[in-house]
C-alpha cells in the first residue's frame, strides 16, 4: 500500500537526514565523492552535507509517513551558485567532476530534484514518492502541461528508473565517474 507524502517541518528533518545518509551509504556511486574509504568518515560527511542542505529555507523536504522515502526539491534561480562538491574541501578531481556536471546542466531557472532516497531499496517507496510528488507538481503547473523537473544522477541504474517517470537524458559526462542530467517535460 502506498503511503501519503508530506512536506516536512523542521522538527522532522532529523528523520529525513537519517534516511538520506543511510541510502547514500548503501549506494556505491557516492564513494568517489566522499573523502576516504572509512565508512565512519563517509557517514559524518554525508550527515554534515544533508544537515546543511535541509536547513536551507529554500529547500523543500518531502517524505512518506514512515520516513522510509525522502525527496529534496530546490527551485534553482539564475542567482544560485552551485556547490563545488558535497564535501567542504574536495579533492581536485572531485571538484573538477562537479564543475563539469554543473557546466553541462540546464539553464536556470528550473525545478531540481536534488535527492531521492529510501531506507529500504526495491520496495516501491521511491516510485510512490515520485508518482505523488510529480502529480502534485503537475496540478500546480500554470501551463497545464507536465511540470518540468531536472535532476542528475551518478548511478547508471537510476537512469532507467527515472525514465519510467517520463524523464529523458538531457546531457551526460564521463570522467573518473559518470553523471547524467535528466529532464521531465
UniProtKB/TrEMBL annotation:
Domain of life from the UniProt record: Eukaryota
InterPro entries per the UniProt record, alphabetical: Acyl_CoA_acyltransferase, Trichothecene_AcTrans
Protein name: N-acetyltransferase domain-containing protein
Source organism: Chytriomyces confervae
Source lineage: Eukaryota, Fungi, Fungi incertae sedis, Chytridiomycota, Chytridiomycota incertae sedis
Amino acid at each position: 500500500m502506498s503511503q501519503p507524502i508530506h512536506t516536512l517541518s523542521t522538527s522532522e528533518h532529523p528523520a529525513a537526514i537519517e534516511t538520506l545518509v543511510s541510502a547514500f551509504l548503501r549506494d556505491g556511486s557516492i564513494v568517489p565523492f566522499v573523502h576516504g574509504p572509512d565508512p565512519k568518515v563517509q557517514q559524518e560527511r554525508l550527515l554534515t552535507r544533508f544537515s546543511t542542505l535541509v536547513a536551507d529555507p529554500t529547500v523543500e523536504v518531502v517524505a512518506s509517513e514512515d520516513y522510509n522515502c525522502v525527496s529534496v526539491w530546490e527551485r534553482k534561480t539564475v542567482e544560485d551558485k552551485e556547490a563545488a562538491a558535497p564535501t567542504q574541501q574536495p579533492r581536485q578531481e572531485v571538484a573538477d567532476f562537479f564543475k563539469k556536471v554543473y557546466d553541462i546542466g540546464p539553464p536556470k531557472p528550473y525545478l531540481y530534484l536534488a535527492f531521492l532516497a529510501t531506507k529500504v531499496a526495491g520496495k516501491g517507496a521511491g516510485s510512490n514518492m515520485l508518482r505523488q510528488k510529480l502529480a502534485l507538481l503537475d496540478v500546480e503547473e500554470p501551463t497545464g502541461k507536465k511540470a518540468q523537473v531536472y535532476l542528475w544522477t551518478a548511478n547508471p541504474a537510476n537512469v532507467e528508473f527515472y525514465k519510467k517517470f517520463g524523464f529523458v537524458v538531457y546531457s551526460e559526462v564521463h570522467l573518473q565517474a559518470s553523471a547524467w542530467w535528466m529532464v521531465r517535460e
